[in-house]
Design goal:
Blueprint: E1 2-8, H1 16-29, E2 34-40, H2 52-55, E3 59-60, E4 66-67, H3 70-78, E5 87-89, H4 90-103, H5 113-129, E6 142-147, H6 157-170, E7 175-182, E8 185-186, E9 189-190, H7 193-204, E10 211-216, H8 222-232, E11 239-243, H9 251-257, H10 260-268, H11 277-297, E12 303-310, H12 320-333, E13 336-343, H13 351-354, H14 356-367, E14 371-374, H15 383-395, E15 400-403, H16 405-417, E16 424-426, E17 436-441, E18 455-463, H17 471-475, E19 481-488, E20 490-492, H18 497-502, E21 505-510, E22 517-522, E23 528-531, H19 546-556, H20 559-564
Parallel strand pairs: 1-6, 1-7, 2-5, 2-6, 7-10, 10-11, 12-13, 12-14, 14-15, 15-23, 16-17
Antiparallel strand pairs: 3-4, 8-9, 17-20, 18-19, 18-21, 21-22, 22-23
Length: about 575
């Protein structure tokens, strides 16, 4: 097993995840089987209880694991299926060690950060790296390990020390380190000092970078790379420039041009790994498809404007999988994607008095959009604005896609304005029990513990009888069952389903017991679809999510040709 560690210096959020994913992709195009692990130094057990505005999106895996959004990058780029074990947090490690101490596993020894915490980290990495992550069921050849945060932070110290020890545990020929650093441009001058200091700190902690990946807004000049090479104790060809690009899907091509795999091969002695011809052929095909995809991106001129009506629009990472799913679909439809971010509260009547400028701007974005998307979220804030946007989409035949909360919003809107239940509500959104609770709390979900207690993970959705007309079902290939990932506490009240369906709102997909509403669709509408599941979690760069693909195609006016093909 070979390990490639990706660490970061100077600032966090510098692009380690994209560089790690792109490096993994390049290994995969050479025929290697690749896995990935993300280390997050925070004390939380997982990301499930963290605010999207603080840490970005919570990504959900097949096994129901609520993990860091970078695991979504790994799955999308590498087309692999990870588990909750692939996300290591300080909380998980300390819980594991404390549990062992309570069992008496340490035989009376004083339990300390070194060696007990550091040993637990190393054992976790070695164990998880061997878990198969693709359809072959075979052990991976390489594992990309991303260390979150910034080297030098107090919370990451045990992980840095564990990785220092790890290089000798597995052998230095099986361990390579990519350090990602920032090269700021000040008054037109490219400054190398932050990178010099970051690498010096890293070396002081016992880790020597094999590659220094320099993030910058522009291409680095040769004197800049030469200076970094000189002061960071690496060769000039070990300094890679990762400047801003028109699309992150160009990053693998940029790294390949700078021969990153050849550099890592020297250190890891990759020629000792026997490659299966089948995987080599798949790798070549993958690389050709990827290059074709990026070339299409550069030639797209027609645009499609999507209004994303959300609750966490101040931090775009809150919807990173939604954004990526729209990008994947736009590439397939050969459209240049424009996302207009609409804060849902700005659409509500109160905003017309408190902030008229934002109110009129928000409604202009909604009314001029080619499609309206309402993604998932929690809590009452902004939901009346979402309902208003949904009403506009339904009445004006504008393509609409509702995800999780967005499906529930569509049900409430339809009940109010078509069924005439003007006080229709969700139990989540009001403190007092509403007279017409269209959305109710799921009985098996805990009301006292929030972490890991929702309906999570991969679950089947059954298309109902006589739904062959469904546009979404046709995009799925006319299948009877689809498996998608879920993350929710509330569901459509089955008591109101007959009345809603009689009024024209079709629940074309239900769970395997026929009790939970999974997909709604309006028949006589260009595209009015809601899903209780989160299809964005399974969208891939070369295989877009079907609900998003249908929505983007309908918004672009090419849905029928897409279905016919």
């Amino acid at each position: 097993m070979k390990y490639v560690v990706v660490s970061g210096g100077v600032i966090s959020g510098i692009g380690k995840g994209v560089i790690a994913s792109s490096t993994g992709l390049l290994f995969k195009t050479r025929g290697f089987k690749v896995s990935a692990i993300k280390i997050d130094p925070y004390m939380n057990i997982d990301a499930g209880t963290m605010s999207p505005l603080e840490h970005g999106e919570v990504f959900v895996l097949d096994d129901g694991g609520e993990v860091d959004l970078d695991l979504g990058n790994y799955e999308r780029y590498l087309n692999i299926t990870l588990t909750r074990e692939n996300n290591i947090t300080t909380g998980k490690i300390y819980s594991h060690v404390i549990e062992r101490e309570r069992r008496g596993d340490y035989l009376g020894k004083t339990v300390q950060v070194v060696p007990h915490i550091t040993d637990a980290i190393q054992e976790w990495i070695q164990r998880v790296a061997k878990i198969p992550v693709d359809d072959s069921g075979e052990e991976p050849d390489l594992c990309i390990v991303e260390l979150g945060g910034t080297v030098g932070d107090i919370e990451s110290a045990p992980f840095v020390e564990a990785l220092r020890q790890f290089q000798f545990r597995v052998g230095i020929e099986n361990f390579a380190l990519i350090h990602v650093s920032l090269v700021p441009v000040v008054n037109g001058e490219q400054k190398t000092k932050p990178t010099q200091v970051a690498v010096r700190d890293l070396r002081g902690l016992g880790l020597m970078p094999d590659i220094v990946a320099c993030r910058c807004t522009q291409k680095l000049e040769k004197p800049t790379t030469d200076k970094i090479s000189m002061f960071c104790h690496v060769g000039p060809d070990q300094v890679l420039v990762v400047h801003d690009l028109s699309s992150i899907y160009h990053v693998p091509l940029l790294l390949d041009q700078q021969k990153i795999i050849q550099q890592l091969s020297k250190k890891l002695k990759l020629e000792t790994i026997h490659l299966t011809p089948t995987f080599v052929e798949k790798g070549v095909s993958l690389w050709n498809d990827w290059k074709h995809l990026t070339s299409i991106h550069d030639r797209m001129f027609e645009t499609v404007n999507i209004a994303l009506v959300g609750k966490y629009t101040h931090l775009k990472d809150s919807y990173i999988s939604v954004i990526k799913s729209l990008e994947h679909s736009a590439l397939r439809c050969q459209r240049k994607l424009t996302i207009n971010w609409v804060e849902a509260t700005d659409l509500e009547p109160d905003a017309s008095e408190s902030n008229r400028v934002n109110f009129h701007k928000a409604w202009h974005e909604v009314c001029s959009a080619d499609g309206i998307l309402v993604p998932g979220g929690f809590g009452a804030r902004g939901t009346e604005g979402m309902i208003a946007a949904c009403k506009w989409a339904r009445e004006n035949k504008v393509p609409y896609l509702g995800i999780c909360l967005g499906l529930q919003i569509a049900v409430i809107e339809y009940a109010r304005n078509v069924l005439g239940l003007h006080d229709a509500q969700s139990e989540e959104l009001v403190t007092d029990a509403p007279q017409h609770a269209l959305i109710v709390f799921m009985p098996e979900v805990s009301k006292t513990h929030l972490g890991g207690t929702m309906r999570l993970g991969l679950r089947p959705t059954i298309f109902q009888e006589n739904t062959e007309w469904s546009k979404l079902r046709k995009l799925y290939g006319g299948v009877d069952v689809v498996h998608e990932r879920h993350r929710h506490r509330y569901e459509v009240n089955p008591k109101y389903v007959p009345d809603l369906e009689t009024a024209g709102l079709s629940f074309v997909g239900k769970d395997d017991k026929g009790e939970r509403m999974e997909i709604l669709e309006l028949k006589n509408h260009p595209w009015f679809v809601g899903t209780q599941y989160h299809p964005e979690y399974l969208s891939r760069v070369l295989d877009p999510s079907k609900p998003y693909l249908g929505f983007l195609a309908a918004s672009s006016g090419i849905l029928h040709s897409l279905i016919d093909n």
